[in-house]
Structure formats: C-alpha cells, structure tokens
C-alpha cells in the first residue's frame, strides 16, 4: 500500500470520535446460553444409563412416562448433553418423551436435538423437528438456525447454510442484523471468506451492516492471510461512515503487523489513543508480537510496561509472547527474569509458559540450564499441570548426560508420582 493511501486511511479513521467506552464491541455469540440450575446428578446418571442400556423401546417408553419422574427442560437438556456422544440414543430419548401426556419439550431442548441430528448429518430429522416445533407453536429462534447453519458449514455445505438463513422467515423467524452477523461469522471462521464477502455485499444495505459486520469480514480475510483485502474492507467501512470500535483498530493493527509494517501499526495505535479509545490486552499483544517479530525486544518491553497505565496489565498471553521471543533470541536470563516477575505477580504462568521455557533450556546445552529445566518441571507438576511424556524423557536424559544423576533420580520419582496423579484424575 502506498504512503498516500495509508495517510488517507489514517485520516478516514480520525474523522470519528468514539463514545468513551472501555468495552469493545464483541463478535456475536450464536450459541451463548444462560447456565441452568444444577440437576440432581444421580437422577441424570440413572436415566442416561437406562437409555443407553435399553434394547426395548416399549419398556423404555413406559419407564420414561413414569409419573415418579418430574420432567423439566433442565433435566431433559442435561440428559441430552450426557448423550452427546450417543446421538441415535439421544434422538430416540427425545422422540419417546414426546409421548408424555403432560410434558412438552421446550425450545431449548429442540435446539439440543436439532444440534445432535445436524452433527449426525441427519437432515431429514432436522426438517421433522422444525415441523414439530411449528406444530407445537414453538417458533424456532435465530439460535436454532445458527446451529443448523454452523453444522452445514462444518459438513462442507456453506451454500446450504446460506439457504437456511434465507429461509428463516418461512418458519416465523425473521432475519435481523444480529443473525446476519452470525452467519457471516460462521462462514468466516470456517474460512469461507470469499462466500461471506459476496453475501455481505448483496445484503449489507438491507441489514444496515455495522462495525461488527465489517470486523467479522476483516478478521476473516486475516484468517486466510489476505491482508490487503482486510485493509480494503476496513477502509471501505470508514468511508461509508461506520463508526470504528476498539476491535476495528485491533484488526487494523493486526493486519499491518502481519504485513511486517509495525511502524504504521504504531501510528494506528497512537491515533486510537488520540481519539479517546482505550486499548485492550488484544491491542497490546498484537503490537508486542509484531515488535518481537521485528526483533525490537526493548520497544516490546516498553509497550508491556504501558499496559499497566491503561488498566489492562499484561496477561499470560503477553508474558508468553515475550518469553517465547526472548528464548528464540537465546536471551535465556531475560526470559527467566520475566518468568520470575510473572510468578510473583498477579498473572501466574500456564502450561504453555513452562513448555516454552523447558524447551529453551536445551538450546545452550549447559548443565545449569538443564538443572533449571528440572526445577521448572517439578514446579509445573506442583502447580497441577500435566507435562507430556516426552518432556519427562527429555529432561531426564539431559540431566543424565550432564552428570546430574542425583537430580535425575528426583525426576524419576516425580514421574512415578505424576503417573499416579494422572491415573487418579482419569
């Protein structure tokens, strides 16, 4: 992209002053649901086992229709979740319970059954379930169609997913901007970005595409590494007068960093600050990764320090990025210093942190480094992380080869303890 074009893009972004909010607009979550109240585990387990072991539909029906069972949507949903890996049995249970004299399935239970049928690619059953919902005057919701669309896309049928979206109104469920964004998100996450883009161009006027719509498409282009198309999409967004969000700026910064254009990414970052946007951890992590990739570790550390000023202190991902790149640069002492700072602060290391550091301890082939690897291995087990078998073998062999037999015996004892712990957890 030429410098005049970049300057034009910056000026387009600077036209807009955002609402002063610390919360960026998020991507749609088509399958988010409220958490149901806890069920009596013994009832759920007993009924699930009954369904799984039954070979006679008639006797199973009689058992399910017993007046001693107080059927509720939450109980039905819990059983369907327990039967998730036994799709045919789950659908059998759902259909048999439709014979109950008083209990009627809830829309949420239909959604679970439809999801199971779609996962089995039993499209005939999906049609019957939708028809049954209409018969019971339980209109399918946008979530219902999002479930079906996502399963079609997962099965390699994106055109079917678009068709189900366009047919929503035939089932008494009218499309809106949120459902439009949801289908775009489903397509883009499955890397059908070209199809999503063409669909977007046709219907963006009808649904009045917003910042979330554009962010979804831009992130989709990034996902398939077509950064120029992502920049074009974001540029078009601001030209059409759609107010950018923090997520928009994050997308800009990510695209520029992927193009190895960190300096212009920093210009975008400074622009968002001038306009009153508050960067989040994603903003900083993308920039820090970009700077590290350019081997500008000191500048990356400066941005890490700035995170505290914006009330979004470094998170575990931030530390892992820095530690990984420091290890790649064979700056082992600096990576360990950062690890110590992490361990003594509010952000504790995770499994990735330990794996990164333990692997780095083998680079210099020093006896002291392998002692550190052993200590890290002990610490990660003490903190409840489960190392890979290869990690144990590698550390053990390294200690033996460098003459640390005493410590190697301790690692052997740890491995025995780890096996017992793993067996207990299973």
From TrEMBL:
Pfam families: PPR, PPR_2. It comes from the Eukaryota. PPR repeats lie at residues 141-175, 176-206, 210-244, 245-279, 280-314, 315-349. Gene3D superfamilies: Tetratricopeptide repeat domain (1.25.40.10). Transmembrane segments: none annotated. Belongs to the PPR family. P subfamily. This is Pentacotripeptide-repeat region of PRORP domain-containing protein. It comes from Corchorus olitorius.
């Amino acid at each position: 992209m030429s410098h005049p074009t970049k300057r034009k893009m910056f000026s387009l972004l600077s036209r807009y002053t955002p609402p002063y909010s610390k919360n960026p607009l998020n991507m749609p979550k088509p399958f988010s649901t409220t958490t149901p109240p806890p069920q009596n585990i013994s009832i759920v387990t007993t009924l699930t086992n009954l369904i799984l072991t039954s070979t006679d539909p008639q006797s199973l029906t009689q058992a399910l229709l017993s007046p001693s069972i107080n059927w509720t949507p939450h109980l039905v949903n819990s059983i369907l979740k327990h039967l998730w890996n036994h799709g045919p049995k789950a659908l059998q249970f759902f259909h048999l319970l439709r014979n109950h004299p008083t209990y009627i399935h809830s829309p949420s239970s239909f959604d679970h059954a439809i999801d199971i049928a779609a996962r089995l690619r039993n499209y005939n059953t999906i049609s019957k379930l939708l028809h049954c919902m209409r018969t019971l005057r339980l209109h399918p919701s946008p979530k219902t169609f999002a479930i079906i669309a996502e399963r079609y896309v997962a099965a390699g049928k994106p055109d079917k997913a678009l068709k189900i979206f366009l047919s929503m109104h035939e089932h008494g469920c009218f499309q809106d901007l949120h459902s439009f964004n949801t289908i775009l998100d489903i397509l883009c996450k499955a890397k059908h970005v070209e199809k999503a883009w063409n669909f977007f161009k046709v219907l963006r006027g009808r649904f009045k595409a917003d910042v979330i719509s554009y962010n979804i498409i831009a992130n989709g282009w990034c996902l398939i590494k077509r950064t120029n198309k992502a920049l074009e999409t974001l540029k078009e967004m601001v030209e059409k007068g759609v107010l950018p969000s923090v997520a928009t700026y994050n997308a800009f910064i990510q695209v520029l960093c992927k193009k190895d254009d960190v300096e212009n990414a920093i210009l975008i970052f400074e622009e968002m600050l001038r306009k009153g946007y508050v960067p989040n951890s994603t903003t900083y992590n993308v920039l820090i990764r970009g700077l590290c990739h350019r081997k500008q570790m000191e500048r990356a550390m400066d941005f890490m320090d700035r995170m505290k000023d914006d009330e979004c202190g470094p998170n575990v991902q931030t530390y892992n990025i820095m530690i990984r790149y420091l290890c790649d640069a064979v700056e082992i002492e600096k990576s360990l210093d950062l690890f110590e700072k992490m361990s003594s602060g509010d952000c504790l290391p995770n499994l990735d942190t330990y794996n990164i550091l333990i692997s780095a301890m083998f680079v210099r082939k020093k006896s002291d480094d392998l002692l550190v690897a052993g200590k890290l291995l002990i610490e990660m087990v003490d903190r409840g992380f489960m190392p890979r078998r290869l990690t144990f073998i590698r550390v053990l062999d390294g200690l033996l080869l460098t003459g640390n037999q005493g410590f190697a015996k301790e690692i052997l004892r740890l491995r025995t303890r780890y096996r017992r712990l793993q067996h207990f957890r299973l």
